[in-house]
UniProtKB/TrEMBL annotation:
Keyword Nucleotidyltransferase set for record: no
A GO molecular function held by the record: tRNA(Ile)-lysidine synthase activity
InterPro entries: Rossmann-like_a/b/a_fold (IPR014729), TilS/TtcA_N (IPR011063), tRNA_Ile_lys_synt (IPR012094), tRNA_Ile_lys_synt_N (IPR012795)
EC code: 6.3.4.19
Protein name: tRNA(Ile)-lysidine synthetase
Residue ranges of every copy of the tRNA(Ile)-lysidine/2-thiocytidine synthase N-terminal domain listed in the record: 47-243
Top-level taxon of the source organism: Eukaryota
Top class in the EC scheme: ligase
Species, as recorded: Orbilia oligospora
Catalysis performed (reactions): cytidine(34) in tRNA(Ile2) + L-lysine + ATP = lysidine(34) in tRNA(Ile2) + AMP + diphosphate + H(+)
Presence of keyword Chaperone: no
Region (Disordered): 366-395
Compositionally biased region (Polar residues): 366-377
Keywords linked to the UniProt accession: ATP-binding, Ligase, Nucleotide-binding, tRNA processing
Length: 619
């Protein structure tokens, strides 16, 4: 059952917010957070609070402080206020320091976080707000890690939600954006900070209007700070939207004043976003149901997903298959966002997979769409001439596969992912269907006319030797060997000047150029030669890095200071960290995939499994 990620509505929309009501709001978003993880709820020992000094965050801090004064689930939870000084106004520092003092008077632990002014030196005034947001969340991440905090609550309220929905509606967002701000989310803007994915943002006020938060502070005689830049409608789109949704001052009190069309009122926008969120949750549930009936395999060492889709599932709506592919793409793609238009093209390509009988018509389209059958249409005979057969086989989008079963598959590259779909006849323990393989798109080769798009991450010996490095948005890697004496060969070569640098990159042609000649040290326990070890590694590639995925693996390389003249490039392969191949030259490395494929709460691994039945089946 998919968790409904919609705001928890407050009991009342008027009057100050009571601490007891805040308990139910906080518990509601916490329940959603653990439901998304498919884990029982645990009350955190520590929770961070993002505090700016405005109405919403001051109300949040005040109510969090009051929880220690009466019996409730969060009575012993330690709340830590994180106050950010953006330094963009003359008053910023004084205001931030005064807010820290207020937090301490309330009895809360407080941390003052300062964004260096250099962070804004190269951005225009139109990008200041975005830059401030990025720097702010990155400071939150590091502070949470420092104090072992896994949950951070923010003061986003119902008015913020309405502004966001209208802003995204004007910007042409899809259903994911129109659902508005999620009450539960991962910490944004911190993709390259190891461990930040484990920090959860909770927004308990999304169902509470701002006027209630103001009344709460007024009643308790708590002061707050107003940022005058929020009223500058020419500064940001959000300021303009906020001014549009804010009712003008009235000379005479009027019950329920109507100054906007009903569809644009805050309440209507909130109802709209809630309905979209409910629809998205239902779609997520359908995607889980669909994938739970496929045979799935996620090969972590190469970050490849294989999905065997039974033929009856391909008869379902194209939109559902598109969403299923988007779910897989989100795990594999180095990109932050998945283009559904591109996923739709991949879905159509899968439905056009050619059948193994050598017929020129689309197997799925003719068989399922026209007859509704799940077996070949025996009455259809469309013999091809030799010229037509050769023309079909020469298409770039189709490639022959040779094995126990001969078949043709469609190949397409979308969203930086290489997709390959092949039709498979029924076999032992396997129904008729299509085998889909997807992995990161191969890198562009370097030439005189263009540069490669392969990422490079330099290992800096002057930094923490055990630092985690994010490679290509897909793998986390770190050196886990001796950090005191740096006894591994590549450290010594760096220190002695034999190597300009050691870096992690993809297995592109120029860095693999010498591998065939040099071979590789497989491990420290064998006496086989480098070339023999390379042959053993290639055998592993066949099973664990299918197709072209072996061209996008992370590889540890060095750039030699004085390369041998007969080699055209100065690069030398030291090892493959995810395969554990490299011996003493590479040393010990720890790694993990950045994103895992999870279906119905089950983490998919190297063993093919059908989640719906729990059976493990060969692909």
């Amino acid at each position: 059952m998919a968790a409904l990620r919609s705001p928890i509505r407050a009991i009342s929309q008027t009057g100050p917010l009571a601490a007891t009501e805040f308990v139910s709001l906080l518990r509601g978003v916490l329940d959603q957070a653990y439901a998304l993880k498919n884990k029982p709820v645990e009350i955190p020992k520590q929770i961070g609070i993002a505090v700016s000094g405005g109405i919403d965050s001051m109300a949040l801090a005040h109510l969090a402080h009051k929880l220690s004064s009466f019996k409730n689930e969060f009575q012993v939870t330690d709340f830590r206020a994180m106050v950010v000084n953006h330094g963009l106004r003359k008053e910023s520092t004084d205001e931030a320091e005064s807010v820290v003092e207020q937090m301490e008077r309330m009895g809360l632990h407080a941390s003052l976080l300062t964004i260096p002014i250099s962070a804004f030196s190269s951005c225009s005034h139109l990008k200041v707000e975005g830059t401030a947001r990025i720097e702010r969340y990155r400071l939150f991440a590091r502070t949470c890690q420092q104090y072992g905090i896994s949950h951070l609550i923010t003061g986003h309220h119902a008015n913020d939600q309405a502004e966001t929905v209208l802003m995204r509606l004007v910007g042409g967002s899809g259903t994911a954006g129109l659902a508005g701000i999620s009450p539960v989310a991962k910490l944004p803007e911190c993709e390259d900070i190891y461990g930040a994915d484990d920090i959860v943002v909770l927004r308990p006020f999304l169902g509470v209007f701002k006027n209630r938060l103001r009344e709460t502070l007024t009643t308790e005689k708590i002061s707050w700070h107003e940022d005058p830049t929020n009223k500058n409608v020419g500064l940001t789109p959000r300021n303009a939207i906020r001014a549009l949704l804010t009712p003008p001052p009235l000379s005479k009190p009027t019950p329920n004043p109507q100054f906007l069309p009903k569809a644009l009122t805050t309440t209507s926008l909130l109802n709209f976003s809630s309905s979209i969120a409910a629809s998205n949750a239902k779609t997520k549930e359908l995607v889980d149901w669909y994938l739970s009936r496929c045979v799935l395999r996620h090969i972590h060492v190469s970050n490849v997903i294989e999905a065997y889709i039974p033929l009856y599932l391909l008869g379902m709506p194209l939109k559902l298959l598109t969403r299923v592919l988007a779910h897989l793409a989100a795990v594999i793609s180095p990109m932050d966002r998945i283009d559904l238009v591109q996923m739709s093209r991949v879905a159509k390509n899968i439905l056009e997979t050619t059948d193994p009988l050598g017929k020129s018509y689309s197997y799925v389209n003719n068989d399922i769409e026209n007859t509704g059958s799940s077996t070949p249409n025996e009455g259809v005979e469309r013999p091809e001439t030799e010229k037509e057969v050769q023309k079909r086989k020469n298409k770039k989008d189709f490639r022959p596969h040779v094995g126990k079963i001969g078949y043709y598959g469609g190949v397409i590259t979308e969203n930086n992912i290489f997709w390959e779909a092949v039709y498979c006849k029924p076999a032992k323990n396997r129904v008729e269907g299509v085998l889909l393989t997807c992995y990161r798109q191969p890198y562009i080769r370097k030439s005189a006319k263009r540069q490669t798009d392969a990422p490079e991450v330099t290992v800096d010996p002057n930094e923490d030797p055990n630092k985690w490095y994010l490679f290509d948005g897909r793998f986390w890697l770190r050196y886990s060997g001796d950090t005191k004496d740096h006894t591994e060969a590549f450290w010594a070569r760096l220190e002695n000047g034999y190597t300009n640098r050691v870096f992690i990159t993809g297995t592109r042609k120029e860095v693999m150029y010498r591998l065939e000649n040099d071979g590789i040290q497989y491990d420290v326990t064998t006496d086989l030669s480098g070339k023999q070890m390379l042959s053993r590694l290639k055998m592993r590639f066949k099973g664990e890095a299918p197709g072209k995925s072996r061209t996008v693996l992370p590889v540890l390389c060095e750039e030699e200071s004085n390369p041998v003249r007969r080699w055209k490039v100065p690069y030398r392969v030291l090892g493959f960290p995810t395969f554990g191949v490299g011996g003493d030259m590479m040393g010990q490395w720890e790694w993990k995939v950045k994103k895992q494929l999870v279906v119905g709460g089950v983490v998919i691994g190297n063993i093919p499994i059908t989640v719906g039945s729990g059976k493990t089946l060969p692909l």
